[in-house]
Amino acid sequence: MELTFIGAAQVLIGLSLLLAGSVEAMFGFMLFSALFGGSAAIALPALGGSSIPPVQFALVFVAMRLLVPGAGQMAALGQASRANLWLIAFVAYGAVLAYIAPHLFAGQIEVTPLRGRTEARYISTRAFIYSTKPLAFSAQNITTSIYLIGTLFAGIAAHVACQRDSGRAKLVRTMAVVGILHALIGFFSIAVKGTPAEELLLIFRNGAYAQLDHSYRGFVRMTGIWPEASGFANFAVVWFVFVFECWLRRIDTRWTGTAAIALAGALAFSTSSTAYVGLPLYALMLVARGLLFPGALRADRAMWIAAGALAFVAITCGVMLWRPVFATEFVDLIRHMTIDKTNSLSGTQRRFWAWQGIEAFLYTGGIGIGPGSFRSSSLATAVLGSTGLIGAVALTAHILNAFKPLRFSTYGATEDPALGTGAAAAWAMLMGVIVASISLPSCDPGTDFAILAGAALALRTRAAKPVDVRLHMAQTFAMGPKPQAA
């Protein structure tokens, strides 16, 4: 076990907050640590070269702050545990299965390991794409089970912190700042590509991941301090939805609006298929909400969105007139990253990885072969193949419990900032699940998911009894929206 310079800095900050900081301050420390997605706080060479990312390491100090004698958080922890009961079931089953299933089904099925060997050589492209090995227990089963436990505690910590309005405000402001920094670092990584200043970013990209720096026809892929463009875009999409939803609900608008603009710009130039699929999909969801619930989107917000769309069209037309070649190349880039990718070698390999989860699910009779046992390219099939039917049901129930599809506050405007922030967190969580279902290699939904779900559950407890959406839809079309309903 080796402590990196990032981990050392976290120790200093974490101990300081443990001695003199509040729960909300420690929560903000954990949120800020999520910015360093390509970094390592602790290197674990004994576990196959794995590492502990900063956000997971920050959870150690959060746990100490909540569990230290005299902290007075036992009641809040009890409430958080009850609210996250489905997530507890998912993690508990997955953590146990990570150690049992690889031995139970050892050698009976061939899978692509979650963490491949970079020194491996293949005789052909086909051999590389369909590379597998007999199922066996590995260090990745251990690390994935640890990550799952960290994900669980992130959700519990978020619930505890957001039970108070100061925690809610800390979540909104911190993630707005983190979103702005994430976007600025992304643009900086493009600007300094190939220059000595790039070394500054490489210092922070010390995680045990394949640190990729690709380009396509002169377009540098935006990675920031993340391992690759897809991870950078995944983080940006999720938190863009959160800050944008907060802005729609007039929550800390100066910061959330700025963060939404910055993240939208970064996603547009990220050259990531995750961004080019995620943004249009969210736009369609937003339009659908507006059509199903007329008036749920405030008039001033609708005007700002329309103005932004017109500005985008005007800028696009200007670029096409000024540099037609650039416009053509950028359109070709988007087509390459979306439509063409399905038939590429990468697309073929990702389909093969995703199908492994279904095969593992069927072969084990719905039990699963354990978290960390194979590499997928979809959270959905990774959960099915790793944790089987029990894990899939538990995680789905947790998602529905946090999203609350039968609450009108999920779709309509509300004057309560807690309800509004909770709904924003719910939409961001849902968007994260959708994006992860086309990209995530593991069954661990991640700390971002857990934080958003935990916050949504905590902030929406003051809501009234759930109501039938169909009833509200009928009332909406007949008499107009009722934003005061929860």
Describe the structure.
The structure is a single chain. With 486 residues, the chain is mainly α. It has one domain (2-479). 65% of the residues lie in helices and 3% in strands. The protein has helices spanning 5-20, 23-33, 54-67, 74-83, 85-104, 125-129, 139-162, 165-191, 198-204, 229-248, 253-268, 273-292, 299-322, 324-337, 345-363, 379-403, 417-436, 447-459, 469-479; strands at residues 2-3, 42-44, 50-52, 110-111, 133-134, 215-216, 219-220. A 3-stranded antiparallel sheet has the order 1-2-3. The chain has a two-stranded antiparallel sheet with strand order 4-5. Strand 6 (215-216) and strand 7 form a beta hairpin. Helix 17 runs antiparallel to helix 18 (447-459). The protein is globular, with a radius of gyration of 22 Å.
Please provide the count of β strands: 7
What kind of sheet is the major sheet? 3 strands, antiparallel
Distance between the termini: 49 Å
In the residues, how many domains can be counted?
A: 1
Mean pLDDT across every amino acid position: 86
- β-strand percent reads under 5%
Give the uncertain stretches in residue-range form.
463-486
Sheet with the most strands: spatial strand order: 1-2-3
Task: Determine Rg (CA atoms, Å).
Answer: 22 Å
User: What would you call the structural class?
Assistant: mainly alpha
Count of helical stretches: 19
The best one-word shape is: globular
Helix content: 55-70%
Question: What's the order of the H and E elements?
Answer: EHHEEHHHEHEHHHEEHHHHHHHHHH
